[in-house]
Design a protein that fits this description.
Layout (H helix, E strand, L loop, with lengths): L12 H44 L2 E2 L9 E2 L3 H7 L2 H34 L4 H8 L1 H4 L2 H11 L7 H8 L14 H28 L4 H9 L4 H12 L1 H16 L3 H6 L9 H11 L3 H26 L9
Antiparallel strand pairs: 1-2
Helix pairs in contact: 1-14, 3-8, 3-11, 6-8, 8-11, 9-10, 11-14, 13-14
């Protein structure tokens, strides 16, 4: 029978693994104690509406004619998934989400790096950057809407001045698909980029400045330091920022509703659900669209978590 020798002063691997396991169990128990009450309340508040929406989606149910309510099982889903308007709404939603999140990530990272480097006046700069995010979405949407209006807006006048009279001051920004989507995306980027920069700023704070200085001494350029040192070390913050903004942008409603109300083929996922449920009082069809939106959000969250491959519980700093 052989024995395994261990170096003096070193404990065997098995007790060490047991200690780590006990620590992990303790942290898990503490996490449930801290987050448990909020989790229970959230489930109680959201579980019933979600279950009710799923149940209603199995019925052909018009609110103005409750006597005609009929169980159709998956017929509503089949109707929606074969409707061109639904896929148009999905395409518009994906377009807005991709454009706004990508632009916000780039601008937000630039603002975060600026706020991280500026020593004075740091607090004032951070407060100014966060002003757009503090404005209510409906208020900012109306401001952008009136700014681009033909009769009351100032954008056409500015463009006329900047182009020395070449711009048509009667141009209707909300009369075309591309210009309507441009204004919607710009308003969304202006409103939520501060949120992105705030999350990325917290990630920059976790980057070891010594590593960046060492790379700089070794002759690394700014872009080399950015892609090989800074971004890899703030991967978790980027994942959280992009995930939150993607889920929020995918459910966009306020800006589209106020600016176009779906005109010129600008309807989105949430606006379509609103139109079916509120305007047409088709409870069954609207519930089915809402369920599909909910499942899409879950799918996006799963793809991001798996794609980034970041363990948010792994850091102990």
């Amino acid at each position: 029978m052989s024995t395994v020798a261990t170096a003096p002063g070193h404990a065997p691997d098995r007790p060490r693994k047991a200690a780590l396991s006990e620590r992990a169990r303790g942290e898990r128990a503490l996490g449930w104690k801290l987050a448990g009450p909020a989790f229970v309340i959230m489930v109680l508040v959201t579980a019933y509406p979600i279950a009710q929406a799923v149940w209603d989606s199995f019925f052909s149910f018009r609110l103005t004619d409750p006597a005609s309510k009929k169980f159709v099982f998956l017929e509503n889903y089949a109707t929606i998934l074969t409707d061109k308007l639904f896929w148009l709404a999905v395409g518009n939603t994906v377009f807005i989400t991709v454009v706004t999140v990508v632009v916000e990530l780039v601008i937000g990272l630039a603002l975060a790096m600026l706020m991280n480097k500026v020593v004075w006046p740091r607090k004032t700069l951070r407060t100014i950057v966060l002003i757009p995010y503090s404005i209510i979405t409906v208020v900012s949407a109306f401001a952008w809407f009136y700014g681009f209006q033909v009769s009351t807006g100032f954008v056409n006048h500015w463009l006329e001045v900047l182009t020395f009279g070449a711009w048509n001051t009667d141009f209707n920004w909300f009369g075309h698909w591309w210009s309507s989507m441009l204004v919607i995306c710009l308003s969304e980027i202006w409103k939520t980029t501060p949120f992105m920069s705030l999350l990325l700023l917290s990630g920059l704070a976790q980057v070891d400045s010594a590593m960046e200085e060492a790379a700089k001494v070794d002759g690394a350029t700014f872009w080399q330091r950015l892609f090989r040192v800074i971004l890899p070390n703030m991967k978790a913050a980027i994942m959280v920022a992009v995930l939150f903004r993607t889920l929020d942008a995918f459910r966009i409603f306020d800006n589209v509703f106020i600016m176009t109300q779906g005109a010129n083929n600008t309807t989105t996922f949430s606006l379509l659900a609103y139109d079916q449920t509120i305007n047409r009082v088709e409870i069954g069809m609207g519930s089915a669209i809402s369920v599909l939106l909910f499942l899409s959000v879950l799918l996006i969250a799963g793809i991001f978590v798996k794609g980034f491959k970041v363990d948010l519980t792994g850091g102990r700093g």
